[in-house]
Each structure stands twice: as structure tokens, then as C-alpha cells.
Amino acid sequence: MASDDDGPPRKRIEQALASLGPRDAVIGGSSSVRGFVIKFRSRRHVRVADVDLTGWDGGTQVHAALPAEYKAKDLATLVDWLRSVLEARA
Known about the structure:
- The protein is α+β, with helices and mostly antiparallel strands.
- Helix content is 31%, strand content 37%.
């Protein structure tokens, strides 16, 4: 289960999901107990991934889980979006 340490990352992801634009790779998402279920575009495909937030050593670990059938480019698309959201300065 996500700890209190994941507050800022969780809020950043929630804000990014609430303000998605038509050109964003991520096209939707919903909050779950451990993180988020994210729907995103990779090339011409729509993909779904679990993004879990776990408190760790004074911070937060972010785990992205995708089906094994997805390609490395699919994972890269999601990670690029997460990185841009989590590295953004408020």
C-alpha cells in the first residue's frame, strides 16, 4: 500500500491526468489503492499500465507494470510521460 511519502508524486500525477491535452501520450487514468491505472497511446496502439507508488527511504518508488507482450517502446512512452510529470517543478 502507498505510504504518506507518496503524497507529492501522487498529487502531481493526479494534476497531470486532470489536465491532459489532445497531443499527450497519456489519454486517461484513474487512481487505485496503490497508485494509478494509466491509459496511453504508443504508436497506433492504446495501452494500459499499472503505476504503483511505494514509500521508500524517505521518498517514493514508482513502479510501472505492463503486460509482457508490450514492446520496449511502449514502456518508454509511459516512462517519458511519468518523468516529465514527476520532474516538473511546482
